[in-house]
Structures are given as C-alpha cells and as structure tokens.
Amino acid sequence: MRSAELKRAKRDVRRRVLAARDALLPNERETRGLEIVRRFLAVRQVATARVVLAFCSFGSEVPTETLIAELHRRGTRVALPRIVNGELEAREYRPGDPMTETSFGALEPAEGRVVDPTEPDVVAVPGVAFDRDCRRVGYGGGFYDRYLLRVRDGSVRIGICFGAQLLPAGAILPSGDFDERVDIVVTESATHRCPRSRDHATGPT
Question: Could you give the domains of the chain?
Fold first, then answer.
C-alpha cells in the first residue's frame, strides 16, 4: 500500500472507530473500563512486573486512573508518558504528583525521574483501533511506534481498548513497516494474546 493510500485508510479507521467509542455512554465507559482494568491486572506479566509504563486517559479512552492507583498500591513502580522534543519519554509517577495538560487535553507528569526505555517490564499502549493479530492504529503521531522500538525484548506490550475498538475476526488494520504491534490486547470481554507474545500463547481468554 502506498503512503498516501495508507494514510487515507488509517484516517477512515480513526473516524469510524472513534465514532463508535465516543458513542459509549459515560456509565458504560466506566463499567467496561473497570473490567478492562481487572483483566489487565490479571495478566501474568503485569502481576510480576516491577515497572509498568501506563498512560493517563483522556476524552473517551478507557479510564486509567483506577489502574494507576492499583499498580501503585501493589508496590509496582509506575511511569507515565511525557512528550519531549517530539518524542515519548517515560517519567516515574506517584498518585498526587504534579501534572501538566497537553495541547490536546491529555495530562502528563510535570516532573519525575526519567525512566529508561529498557526499564519497563510492561508497556500499556493506548490506541484508536486494534485487530486480532495485534496490529494497532494510533492517533497519527507515531510516538508509541518509535518508543516501542527502544524497549527491551523482554518487555510485554499490552493494548488497552473497549471491545468496540477491536476489529472482528478476519478484519485487518492498515499497517506499514514502521507500525509496531502489541503482544496482548485487553478489552472488557477478552484478553487476546498474539503469536508474537512472549509466552507464545494465542487466542482469547
């Protein structure tokens, strides 16, 4: 697929999937979000992780405040993304630490120790859409694609999304050579592990 066609195909996906996500009522988003958090925390690699790169949700994304708080309660070191000079940088975070608002409305740590990309055992990855082979379409900035190239081989990438954002079986997202996949996709109804997952498990659970 040529570059212009790929960009157009991704724009179409974003428009369609974001409309479906935005259509979820606030109470549905909250209820489903809590189940997604429960499933995420139940993933074996999360339970044993020393460091997790999470993210602050915004807009109609899966709410992550409960996830961050529970990881901290467990004693897991939590990092959150901050955009610095056009690149994603992980900063250590504790609930209550000062935050700043980005131009698009998301919150990011105002300070905190810089966490090297080799440190996180688990990276929680946001996205607009995912498919059953763990391809991902993000918001178009490429921040996570570039960051994931720098994480160590042993870290596990877990996409977090509502079921409305996961394409049905057989549907494939438009993807280029520079698009990084995740290892697991967690929704409110299933945990999908892909063939490249570190424990080589496949299929929903």
Answer: 3-197 (3.40.50.10420)
